[in-house]
Design goal:
The protein is mostly helical and 64 residues long. It has one domain.
Amino acid sequence: MNKTVYKIFEYAYLVVFVLSIFAVISSWNSDKNRAYLFIFFAVVSILMFFFKRNFRKKLEKSQQ
């Protein structure tokens, strides 16, 4: 059960990343401050994806 929850949250961070990149592209010409905010969200979400993935793999390895 926990493994699936961890995977769902991992992929939720990827969804946030994709949505943030889409927001950056759509608002780049009209509002640069908003675009920079979404760039920050994209960077944080992709870093969290890799952090959570690494944490889940370490947890699975320790449980074996």
